[in-house]
Write a structure and sequence with these properties.
With about 220 residues, the chain is of the alpha/beta class. The chain is about 25% helix and about 25% strand. It folds into two domains: about 80 residues, no CATH class; about 120 residues, no CATH class. The protein is elongated and about 90 Å long. It starts with 10 loop residues before the first helix and ends with a helix.
């Protein structure tokens, strides 16, 4: 059926020529080029149209192919048009509100990941002492041990191994120092610090400690 569509027609004229029942009709106007370049958008629009017809069984869905038409489409058009979303003219029922952005409390979050034994928990202890003390000697006299840690070092010319332990006040049994090859940290745990210097004064810093990757518990523990 010839609707008399011409290249000089504007979108409103196009709507008047194609639509006979705006209330119960949705017309999708596109062409092969637009379909090829906007396939993701195409499928989203089709899904929205089908959902609208589920809610209104009387709704007619019509596709008008402009591939071989003199009228040049610059975007996919849904008729009747009331509003634009993502450069697609669409009826109000197809326009969804943008998702709300997640609210942030302004905290800085640092997630520590790495193999077992690389020193993630030790790093947290060192960082806490760095924030608390201005001088290294002050930290050596009364160090803050946020997380109980132990590690082995070699001493003297015979490379004698000596275990260094720092006991702390962690009462949640989150550390296992007795099983060689197992991650010392047993569960994820976050530690919140308050920054007291510079432009970030008073800001929360949350460091998240995690069990080590590649320990000898095996895949059963991972599952």
């Amino acid at each position: 059926m010839d609707r008399g569509i011409e290249n000089v027609n504007d979108q409103k004229t196009l709507e008047l020529k194609l639509l006979t029942d705006p209330k119960n009709t949705r017309i999708m106007c596109s062409n092969d080029d637009l379909h090829q370049k906007n396939q993701s958008q195409w499928h989203i629009i089709c899904g929205q149209l089908l959902k609208e017809r589920e809610e209104n069984p009387q709704l007619q869905l019509i596709y008008v192919d402009f591939t071989y038409c003199s009228y040049r489409l610059n975007q996919i058009i849904i008729l009747p048009t009331t509003q634009k979303k993502n450069n697609v003219s669409a009826p109000q029922s197809l326009v969804t509100a943008p998702p709300e952005r997640l609210k942030s409390d302004g905290s800085l979050n640092i997630l520590l990941l790495g193999e077992s034994g690389v020193g993630k928990s030790t790093f947290i202890n060192a960082f806490v002492n760095y924030l608390k003390f201005d001088k290294l000697k002050a930290a050596e006299k009364n160090p803050v041990v946020l997380i109980p840690v132990s590690f082995a070092i070699t001493i003297d010319d015979n490379f004698t191994e000596q275990v260094v332990k720092f006991e702390g006040n962690d009462t949640l049994s989150n550390e296992d120092h007795d099983n060689l090859g197992h991650s010392v940290t047993q569960h994820c745990k976050s530690y919140v610090l308050i920054l007291k210097d510079g432009n970030d004064y008073g800001r929360k810093l949350r460091i998240i400690d995690t069990p080590g990757i590649g320990d000898t518990y095996g895949s059963g523990q991972d599952d």
